[in-house]
Amino acid sequence: MTAPAVRWFARPAQAAPLGSLRNQLLRWLLGPLIVLVALNTFSLYHDAVEAADMAYDRSLLASTRALAERVSVHDGKVVADVPYVALDSFETDTLGRIYYRVGGLHGETVSGYDDLPAVPPNVPRSELYPALVRFYHATYNGEELRIAALLQPVYDDSMRGIALIQVGETLDARRALSRRILVSTLARQAILVLAVATLVWVAVRLVLRPLMRLKDEFGTRPLSDLSNVDQALVHKEVRPLVATLNGTMARMQNLVASQRRFIADASHQLRTPLTVLKTQAELALRANDPDAMRAIVQSIAGTTDSAVNLANRLLTLARIEHGGQGDMAPVDLPAVARQVGLELALPAVQKDIDLALDAPEPLSVTGQAMMLHELVSNLVDNAIRYTPAGGSVLLAVRAVADGVLLEVTDSGPGIPAAERDKVFTPFYRSGATMEANPNGTGLGLAIVRDIATLHGAHITLAEGDGGPGLKVGVLFAT
């Protein structure tokens, strides 16, 4: 039998326990959502500020054009006919100040603030408007301005030229509008995030409600309830997990039923020798003849040996049903056979049985050394017990095409073919074996079968070579 495969997915020994599924879902849903909303907020704010700047630039251009309409040529000079009320409206605004300058044909100041910053040489003409206008930022008297510079053709009968009209406004109004846009955008996005978070939280709770019901059902179940869970109660993605749980509970039901049967059979089997011991002890107490008492004590010793043998085999069977002890490793099977042969040589000699070993070379199988020793020991012990005096027992280990074959052949009464499937049932004994050994337990072959199953080996029963008897073969795959 090959070593058990390592699971492809295993929890690390020191891994932190997983947290709440609901919290993880909320984090994975709301985290990216908040990031996307933040990016969207930045984009909306940027677009809104651009639109506001464009609107303010259009208003600034309109003011520049209004001023340009009042620029004309008289007597060869550029003049700006700006009334006092117009000047007052140009110089102040509800949210800031407005400055202007009208430049003549030769750059001289015709009207307005003559120290208004000039147009930088690298400012391109705006492509958004048909007018020859340039927009730029500048600092004037410690204030930041947005200035529109418009080239206005002027002419009369005596001359032609281009006048420069500049109108600048402080950025207070623009900044106030930007702040309002930012606050409004953040408020709307915050409301949106809050609404989506609420909907996601409600949705996650609703989606996880079947899992919570499943948790509650398992949490409130009595320990004896191992019935299946209805897979229709959970989502399709969770049904494989529920199916696995149902399979586990089915195996637990079988294990519990097997343990109950084992306990019932064991208590029944142990009751008989204990009752006999009690009867023998009572007889010994009433006996006055030393020889009779000695015979009773010898009988008590024999019954005690049988009870101890039965208890040991019951413990072995229970240990095998729980997976044996130790990990799988290479084991030299002929060495195990030689060790068992040495341990059981004395009982064989006492019955005048020829115990032989045929294991000429080391042969390795994968398994648990203690369990394999128990398997070989049970087979050889059974063969010695059921072989009459003067008989023979052969223990052989050899390599075959399919693996390593262990065979134990005896010259006892054998097992009828019709009963060979039944003898692996705990406590079952055929008629022939009961006649040959009335004190048997009926557990030897059951133990052998369970150990063989644990190691993935195949067990067969056949008649002895050339006559009555039993040949037990255990084939270990390699």
TrEMBL record:
Q: What class of enzyme is it?
A: transferase
Span of the signal peptide: none
Q: Which reaction does it catalyse?
A: ATP + protein L-histidine = ADP + protein N-phospho-L-histidine
Q: Does the keyword Transferase apply?
A: yes
- Specify whether Transmembrane helix is a keyword of the entry: yes
Question: Which Pfam families did the record assign?
Answer: 2CSK_N, HATPase_c, HisKA
Q: Which PROSITE patterns match?
A: HIS_KIN (PS50109)
Classification via InterPro entries: 2CSK_N, HATPase_C_sf, HATPase_dom, His_kinase_dom, HisK_dim/P_dom, HisK_dim/P_sf, Sig_transdc_His_kin-like_C, TCS_sensor_his_kinase
Give the GO molecular function terms: kinase activity
Q: EC annotation?
A: 2.7.13.3
Q: Where are the transmembrane segments?
A: 25-45, 181-204
Q: Where in the cell is it found?
A: Membrane
Q: Which residues form a coiled coil?
A: none
SMART domains registered for this protein in UniProt: HATPase_c (SM00387), HisKA (SM00388)
**Domain Histidine kinase: where?**
265-478
Q: Which UniProt keywords apply?
A: Kinase, Membrane, Phosphoprotein, Transferase, Transmembrane, Transmembrane helix
* Name the record gives this protein: histidine kinase
